[in-house]
Amino acid sequence: MQPSAPSPAQPVAPSFDERLTAPASWWVIVALLGLSGGLVMFPLGTVPTLVGVIAAAALAAVAVSSYGSARVRVVAGSLVAGDARIPASALGAPEVLDAEEARAWRSHKADPRAFMLMRSYVPTAVRVEVTDPADPTPYVYLSSRDPEALAKALETARAEAR
């Protein structure tokens, strides 16, 4: 039996999939914020102290998890970064950025028209030029803990799109 090409009903496995989660140190800060919320409520008694701990920790956890849950994928011939989906055919060659170069592209080299999915706790990144003439976005900047693998997946997707 010959393997068949994936049908629209079958999901296509991503060639690259990374979730940019917050580091463990941020969760320590969440715990400390919960403790401080309880200490603020301590003079009011035991129940308000527990409510303060739970409420402060819950609010901090929601903030950290919502900010720290960006996802970058290369799947089905497209780059999916956060809410953006860009076909590989509309992208140029990816450029792997080390920590110093990534910092430069986040600051003085940055173009305000660029799409940037960056996380301060991820020092390395990939920058990809957008080659679609109808798109005013000059490039895509993506934080990544494994920029070489992301660049390789993008090159493969570009080659398949040609």
Description:
The protein is α+β, with helices and mostly antiparallel strands and 162 residues long. The chain folds into 2 domains: 48 residues, no CATH class; 90 residues, no CATH class. 39% of the residues lie in helices and 25% in strands. A 4-stranded antiparallel sheet has the order 1-2-3-4, covered by helices on one side. Strands 5-7-8-6 form a 4-stranded mixed sheet. Helix 1 packs antiparallel against helix 2. The longest helix has 22 residues. The radius of gyration is 21 Å and the shape is elongated. The N terminus is likely disordered.
Can you tag this structure with a few keywords?
162 residues, alpha+beta, 4-stranded antiparallel sheet, 4-stranded mixed sheet, 8 strands, elongated, disordered N terminus
Q: How much of the residues is beta strand, in percent?
A: 15-25%
CA-based shape: elongated
The largest pleated sheet is described as:
4 strands, antiparallel
In round numbers, the mean pLDDT is: 86
- The main sheet orders its strands as 1-2-3-4
Unreliably modeled segments: 1-5
Rg calculated over all Cα atoms: 21 Å
Q: What is the domain total for the residues?
A: 2
Percentage of residues in helical conformation: 25-40%
Kindly, what is the distance between the CA atoms of the first and last residues, rounded to a whole number of angstroms? 29 Å
Q: What order do the helices and strands follow?
A: EHHEEEEHEEEH
Give me the secondary-structure category: alpha+beta
Q: Count every helix, treating DSSP H or I runs of 4 or more residues as helices.
A: 4
Number of strands: 8
